[in-house]
């Protein structure tokens, strides 16, 4: 682990990345944003629970993917005290065309952030917490040790809280990066494939489909008891057969939990919405996924990786016990 400096920050490798937000999006052509159908419209957040969660996160100087990615479920989740912590800053080193998180040169890591996350989890009284991050290609280990420190801090402060991580792909990092996160023993290891392989060059140009698939498979090799989870968006231009093939690929990597949600275009500069997938199609995907052997499936227009994560984790654990004949 690198030593922290006097300000509690950990130095990063010098990358030639632009400092301005979303610089790569300025050159993209505008894509018309279609009107959303009734089944994916949500109300603006106004509850006291929402405000309390917002204030606690602000006080602890924490970033959430709920805000940064413009999640449509933020009102519902924050009203119930649920939030997905986004560690390692709010600037990503990649420019995926579906994502609304800022791209550029990140700041140095804050060595005190794991402790602040742990304090927020305790203050919010979370029974289940999801911890994610931006991609940090500027770090030798992709931020893996920072993930591990955050997991350990939450465990120490809130030993009864179950922990789910949603990690980057640790592309070009040594094997020890993934090993460090798994060794910290989160209850759920989530890494999203995001889309079908044929769309990676448009949607995730900095990622590699089979690397991400292998990452999930490797988690199971390192710890067969750890729950693994992955998700994709639909409505980006994929067809049904490609989605079914992704399901097969995930099952070949022994992924336990699949999420499928509707892609929503954040701005005209982002990847276009090809179409809005109907609730009936989502139900058909869910049925097909269970038929392929997933322990848990969430497939609805508003499904996101951490939506109802705590309740789904309880169901996931119960499904495993039932499969083992202990339910």
From TrEMBL:
Signal peptide per UniProt: none
The cofactor remark states: Binds 2 [4Fe-4S] clusters per subunit. One cluster is coordinated with 3 cysteines and an exchangeable S-adenosyl-L-methionine.
Q: State which Enzyme Commission number(s) the record gives.
A: 2.8.1.8
Which segments constitute the Radical SAM core domain? 78-295
Family matches, as SMART domains = Elp3
Q: Which domain of life is it from?
A: Bacteria
Localisation: Cytoplasm
What is its cofactor?
A: [4Fe-4S] cluster
**InterPro entries to which the protein is assigned, alphabetical:** Aldolase_TIM, Elp3/MiaA/NifB-like_rSAM, Lipoyl_synth, rSAM, rSAM_sf
Broad class of enzyme this protein falls into? transferase
Q: What pathway or pathways are given for this protein in its record?
A: Protein modification; protein lipoylation via endogenous pathway; protein N(6)-(lipoyl)lysine from octanoyl-[acyl-carrier-protein]: step 2/2
Molecular function per GO: 4 iron, 4 sulfur cluster binding; lipoate synthase activity; metal ion binding
Q: What processes in GO biological process is this protein linked to?
A: protein lipoylation
Compositional bias of kind Basic and acidic residues: 11-30
| Region (Disordered) location | 1-35
Keywords attached to this Swiss-Prot or TrEMBL record, sorted alphabetically, are:
4Fe-4S, Cytoplasm, Iron, Iron-sulfur, Metal-binding, S-adenosyl-L-methionine, Transferase
Q: Where does [4Fe-4S] cluster 2 bind?
A: 92, 96, 99
Record-annotated residues binding [4Fe-4S] cluster 1?
66, 71, 77, 306
The UniProt entry, under Pfam families, shows:
Radical_SAM (PF04055)
Predominant subcellular localization, coarse grouping: cytoplasm
- Similarity remark: Belongs to the radical SAM superfamily. Lipoyl synthase family.
PANTHER family xrefs: LIPOYL SYNTHASE, LIPOYL SYNTHASE, MITOCHONDRIAL
Q: What is this protein called?
A: Lipoyl synthase
């Amino acid at each position: 682990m690198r030593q922290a400096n006097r300000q509690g920050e950990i130095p990063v490798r010098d990358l030639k990345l632009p400092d301005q937000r979303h610089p790569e999006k300025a050159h993209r052509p505008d894509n018309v944003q279609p009107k959303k159908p009734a089944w994916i419209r949500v109300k603006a957040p106004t509850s006291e629970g929402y405000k309390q969660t917002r204030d606690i996160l602000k006080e602890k100087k924490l970033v959430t993917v709920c805000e940064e990615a413009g999640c449509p479920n933020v009102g519902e989740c924050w009203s119930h005290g649920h939030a997905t912590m986004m560690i390692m800053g709010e600037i990503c080193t990649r420019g995926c065309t579906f994502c609304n998180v800022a791209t550029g040169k990140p700041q140095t890591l804050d060595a005190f952030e794991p402790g602040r996350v742990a304090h927020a989890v305790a203050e919010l009284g979370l029974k289940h917490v999801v911890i994610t991050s931006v991609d940090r290609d500027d770090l030798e280990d992709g931020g893996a040790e920072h993930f591990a420190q955050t997991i350990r801090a939450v465990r120490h402060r809130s030993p009864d809280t179950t922990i789910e991580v949603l990690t980057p792909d640790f592309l070009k990092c040594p094997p020890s990066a993934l090993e460090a996160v798994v060794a910290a023993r989160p209850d759920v290891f989530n890494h999203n494939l995001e889309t079908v392989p044929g769309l990676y060059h448009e949607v995730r140009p900095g990622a590699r489909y089979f690397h991400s698939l292998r990452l999930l498979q490797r988690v199971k090799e390192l710890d067969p008891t750890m729950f693994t989870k992955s998700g994709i968006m639909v409505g980006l231009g994929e067809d049904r057969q490609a989605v079914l093939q992704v399901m097969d690929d995930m099952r070949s990597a022994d992924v336990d939990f699949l999420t499928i949600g509707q892609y929503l275009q954040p701005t005209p500069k982002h990847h276009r919405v090809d179409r809005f997938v109907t609730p009936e199609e989502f139900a058909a995907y869910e049925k097909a996924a269970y038929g392929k052997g997933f322990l848990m499936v969430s497939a609805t227009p508003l499904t996101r990786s951490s939506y109802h994560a705590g309740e789904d984790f309880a169901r996931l654990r119960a499904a495993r016990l039932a499969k083992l004949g202990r339910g």
